[in-house]
Design brief:
This protein is an alpha/beta fold and about 350 residues long. The protein folds into two domains: about 1-135 and about 310-345, Quinone Oxidoreductase, Chain A, domain 1; about 155-290, NAD(P)-binding Rossmann-like Domain (Rossmann fold), CATH 3.40.50. The chain is about 30% helix and about 30% strand. It has ten helices and 20 strands. The strands form five sheets. Strands 3, 7, 8, 11, 12, 19 and 20 form a seven-stranded mixed β-sheet that branches. A six-stranded parallel β-sheet has the order 15-14-13-16-17-18, with helices on both faces. Helix 3 packs across helix 9. The protein starts with a strand and ends with a strand.
């Protein structure tokens, strides 16, 4: 089969790869249809790492995906050949203390698609995953929508941890696919919330307004803290960081009101971010980190398939599998108004 390998910084090659095979009774063999290009993929593409996770070339990246079931192991009951499925890229051990507590997203022995040293990614024609990672989708759902269930499930989990109350004043810093899906999730959780959203790109801010942001600001043209504080002098109830940069973390601490909450969703490229303790201590700020998602995939499928949330406008670009390098370059350089790029592997 063919797979898209990272072979160096900003280098992707389509190569032949070993055919995957069912090895465990709970394995599912998938034909990959669509793969989404994610911001975390960009860290591996541009820098070759996320923190201590360093790419050893060649490596297959990609984790947002959907496909069709080709074959199943003898113990599989939740899907069957011919089913179309959304894929949760996490593979858990099922036996550690975290798994026994139901906290499978922090499984101590987990493996993740496209993560260096763990599992080769989904940028390939066929893939084997455990049945617990495969979620059957309804006929009315497109493969692109199924692929969006992965980032949207993270957004739903972030909103659950953030717990926005009716009428909440919320800041969302960053309007990439995660920031925009977090906005959609917050508006579902608290429809009357007021959202202040920032980014560096005008087209993404326009999408934030389309999805319900009450105010948007281009962070390289204004002082976001000054502008939002002028509108909300007592501060925001909740600020959600969706960038993974020190500057936006600092802005969170300035914007949130005393005893407010800061939720960190963005993934930093390096090893450390710091918190200005003067704000942390004096305001008694609560900080909540987000580790992907927990039990949100079925809900993501239901909300998208039913039309309760429309994320289709986020998909701005489609590429054939042979154009994987072009897809990654486009997203890496934020060109042509890209928000979410999709690669059609076999679709």
């Amino acid at each position: 089969m063919k797979a898209a390998y990272l072979t160096g910084l900003r280098k992707i090659e389509i190569r032949e790869a070993p055919e995957p095979a069912i090895a465990q009774p709970t394995d599912v063999l998938l034909e990959i249809d669509t793969v989404g290009v994610c911001g975390s993929d960009m860290h591996y593409y541009k820098a070759g790492r996320i923190g201590c996770q360093v790419v050893q070339y060649p490596w297959i990246v990609g984790h947002e995906c959907a496909g069709r079931v080709l074959a199943v192991g003898e113990a599989v009951t939740r899907v069957r050949p011919g089913d179309r499925v959304a894929v949760d890229p996490l593979v858990i051990c099922g036996t550690c203390d975290q798994c026994r507590l139901g906290q499978v997203h922090t499984c101590r022995n987990q493996f993740f698609l496209g993560c260096p040293g763990q599992l080769q990614g989904s940028m390939c024609e066929r893939l084997v995953m455990p049945e617990g990672s495969c979620f059957r989708i309804p006929d009315e759902m497109s493969m692109a929508q199924a692929t969006l269930c992965e980032p949207f499930s993270i957004a739903l989990w972030a909103a659950k941890l953030a717990d926005p109350q009716p009428g909440a004043k919320i800041g969302i810093l960053g309007s990439g696919p995660i920031g925009l899906t977090v906005l959609a999730a917050c508006k579902l959780a608290a429809p009357d919330c007021t959202v202040y959203q920032t980014d560096l790109l005008a087209n993404r801010l326009a999408m934030a307004e389309r999805l319900g942001a009450a105010w948007t600001g281009k962070a390289d043209e204004i002082d976001p803290v000054a502008a939002i504080s002028a509108a909300e002098p007592l501060g925001l109830d909740l600020v959600i960081e969706c960038v993974g940069e020190q500057e936006t973390v600092d802005q969170c601490l300035e914007l949130v009101q005393p005893c407010g909450k800061v939720v960190i969703v963005g993934i930093p490229e390096g090893d450390r971010l710091s918190f200005e303790m003067n704000h942390m201590r004096r305001k008694e700020i609560r900080v909540q980190n987000v580790r992907r998602q927990l039990d949100q995939v079925d809900r993501a499928i239901e909300l998208i398939a039913s039309g309760q949330v429309d994320l289709d406008p986020l998909v701005t670009h489609d590429f054939d599998f042979a154009e994987s390098q072009a897809a990654y370059d486009l997203v890496a350089d934020y060109r042509d108004g890209v928000i979410k790029g999709m690669i059609r592997v076999s679709g």
